[in-house]
Specification:
The longest helix has 20 residues. This protein is an alpha+beta fold. The chain is elongated. The protein is 36% helix and 21% strand. It has three domains: 123 residues, Methyltransferase, Cobalt-precorrin-4 Transmethylase, Domain 2 (2-Layer Sandwich), CATH 3.30.950; 161 residues, Heat Shock Protein 90 (2-Layer Sandwich); 137 residues, Arc Repressor Mutant, subunit A (Orthogonal Bundle).
């Protein structure tokens, strides 16, 4: 909802109306026709607006609104007040309390007083356990990390820093919002990488035990690393395609961290699979927010204290803008919403995945070359040259690695005898094939004996099941992937 008008006392009533519904925007310095009149002292007016909201409305509106100064092409300034629906309804003007004169709602484009029955109904449904009201499980908290983040953003960290962030309960104890932002806490968020499509954990990173802002940055960095980019070089342009839209992924991750129900001691979970990333947050949708409103970008922050801090850190922008950005790349069908959980499932871009898989295969070749048993350094150089250019000639290889043509012919004959390379097609129009890739890929790039992978620190070797010296054939069926330890054990037995 949007109102266009000059600054008047009426704006406090309209803000209360927005807080008690699904939020909206107010424009200061714009007339009823939408024409920008401009403000002579926009900075001073913005400060006055913030003070009036903070001093005249209950419960606390911290983290539920933003005051932004905009400038037109004609250098006229106006102010946009973005308001989110609140989680502790009914909001009211302090002067009049929980009465029809103090409580307002939005009906269409108008703000209207609430009936007393509606006020009583909203008050009876008010969430009893917000981060502000719940005491931290530990009271010996410090906030060095949070203060550093604020100082880096140019904020003044003074005597009332913690109080201004609403880190105390009504009886003066540190609340749960303070606990989440403290240097030491028990909140941990996991990013788990699974192997294939099963619950076979390949890698797990736990971020936590420290300030939630630091945790959020670590989670975003990790997801960004997993969200690989496919690169296509096509004249005259280079085309970069991510597995997942990076803006949508970032916003979905931040939404999960911002709106998770921490009071029940649950944390968001980030799962990375071979074809998708799944983000799960607990608590379902905030009370009073429908699925239609959620996907339309309406905002109802579950934790206003965290929202305010994330906005200060520039981790989020306008209320509801995150879901709007996500819906530009994905659909509501990519979400599963239940009473207790919100799950986002983002499938990888198939075209990008195909390009990356091809690239990974080439990288795997090069990495595994170093681990082939019974190969000299020159033989490994020849294999690398073939991988880079399967249609290469023996003459080209000789020039590339500075060896004589006779030496290259002998090396390639040896590699063919071992079954590592073979020639496909005609002599002139054919190409070379590196069999080691097929074997490594067949064995899923892990030791067939103990199951360890290179990512887990193992060196993998291409091994002849039946040694050539004992009649083994130089074919893929007689090759297997072994780690250094298993390969050594086999050699000892032989």
């Amino acid at each position: 909802m949007t109102c266009l008008y000059r600054l008047k006392n009426q704006f406090k009533i309209d803000i209360v109306g927005f807080l008690n519904t699904a939020g909206g925007e107010l424009y200061i310095g714009v007339d009823n026709s939408g024409k920008v009149c401009g403000l002579e002292n926009a900075d001073k007016t913005a400060l006055r607006i913030g003070d009036r909201i903070k001093d005249n409305i209950n419960p606390s509106t911290m983290g539920l609104y933003s005051v932004l100064i905009k400038t037109t092409d004609e250098n006229k300034k106006y102010i946009v007040i973005s308001v989110s629906g609140g989680y502790e309804k009914p909001y009211h003007l302090k002067q009049y309390g929980l009465t029809p004169k103090g409580c307002y709602t939005r009906i269409g484009t108008q703000t209207a007083p609430m009936h007393q029955s509606m006020i009583d109904e909203l008050y009876s449904r008010r969430v009893p356990n917000t981060l502000h009201k719940v005491a931290a499980p530990r009271q010996n908290l410090t906030f060095s990390q949070l203060k550093i983040y604020y100082e880096e953003k140019g904020f003044n960290v003074g005597e009332y820093f913690l109080k201004n962030l609403d880190f105390y309960t009504d009886d003066g104890k540190f609340n749960y919002a303070a606990f989440l932002m403290a240097d030491n806490n028990t909140t941990s968020i996991s990013v788990v990488k699974y192997h294939n499509d099963y619950k076979d954990i390949q890698k797990k990173k736990d971020f936590g035990g420290y300030c939630l802002i630091k945790t959020a940055f670590n989670v975003l960095d990790t997801l960004n690393n997993y969200n690989e980019t496919a690169v296509e070089i096509t004249y005259p342009n280079r085309i970069d395609t991510h597995l997942i839209d990076p803006i949508a992924l970032r916003e979905a991750a931040l939404n999960a961290i911002l709106h998770n129900d921490y009071i029940n001691c649950t944390t968001p979970l980030f799962e990375v699979y071979d074809n998708r990333i799944v983000i799960v947050s607990s608590g379902g949708l905030p009370h009073g927010l429908s699925q239609e409103e959620f996907f339309a970008g309406k905002s109802l922050p579950r934790h206003r204290e965290i929202m305010r801090i994330f906005k200060d850190m520039e981790l989020c922008e306008q209320f509801g803008s995150g879901m709007t950005k996500i819906m530009r790349a994905y659909k509501p069908e990519d979400y599963l919403i239940s009473k207790n959980f919100v799950t986002a499932k983002f499938m990888y871009d198939k075209h990008a995945l195909g390009i990356i898989d091809s690239t990974i295969d080439k990288v795997q070749y090069k990495v595994q070359i170093k681990c082939i048993d019974d190969c000299t350094l020159d033989e490994k150089s020849v294999i690398a040259s073939i991988i880079n250019n399967p249609t290469t000639t023996q003459t080209q290889i000789a020039q590339e690695i500075s060896k004589s043509l006779r030496t290259i012919k002998n090396i390639m004959a040896s590699l063919q005898k071992k079954g590592i390379i073979e020639r496909e097609g005609a002599k002139k129009s054919g190409q070379w094939r590196v069999n080691l890739h097929d074997v490594f890929k067949r064995d899923d790039f892990r030791c067939v004996k103990c199951g360890i992978t290179q990512e887990e620190g193992a060196k993998l070797y291409l091994d002849h099941i039946q040694p050539i010296s004992k009649g083994g054939l130089p074919i893929a069926q007689n090759l297997q992937t072994l780690c250094a330890k298993c390969n050594m054990n086999k050699n000892n037995k032989l």
